[in-house]
Design a protein that fits this description.
With 112 residues, the chain is mostly beta strands. 0% of the residues lie in helices and 51% in strands.
């Protein structure tokens, strides 16, 4: 069955960095557009970043442009989200998405 398993979240100080990973299985990863979403308590879910199947096209929310980078390794069936210059407002549960499939999420907390 389809599985999306995120990892890499944690507690980081403002200005710090984290790299999230999402390991995929159960579908043809190399054909799938992959997305990272986040949701903070009391807020709507936000699309953070998108990457097309071959990785040629990426898109970002305005709130993370210039700080976050989405990438993928189609040999490892994994999509990544490199997050730099983290801010307290980046605190959220981050989830990866492939169409109708979702991972369980990984918590990112930015706090001093």
């Amino acid at each position: 069955q389809v599985q999306l398993v995120e990892s890499g979240g944690g507690l980081v100080q403002p200005g710090g960095s984290l790299r999230l990973s999402c390991a995929a299985s159960g579908f043809t990863f190399s054909s799938a557009t992959m997305k990272w979403y986040r949701q903070a308590p009391g807020k709507e879910r936000e699309l953070v970043a998108t990457i097309t199947s071959a990785g040629r096209i990426t898109n970002y929310a305005n709130s993370v442009k210039g700080r976050f980078t989405i990438s993928r390794d189609n040999f490892k069936n994994t999509v990544y989200l490199q997050m730099n210059s983290l801010r307290p407002e980046d605190t959220a549960m981050y989830s990866c998405n492939a169409g109708v499939f979702w991972g369980q999420g990984t918590q990112v907390t930015v706090s001093s």
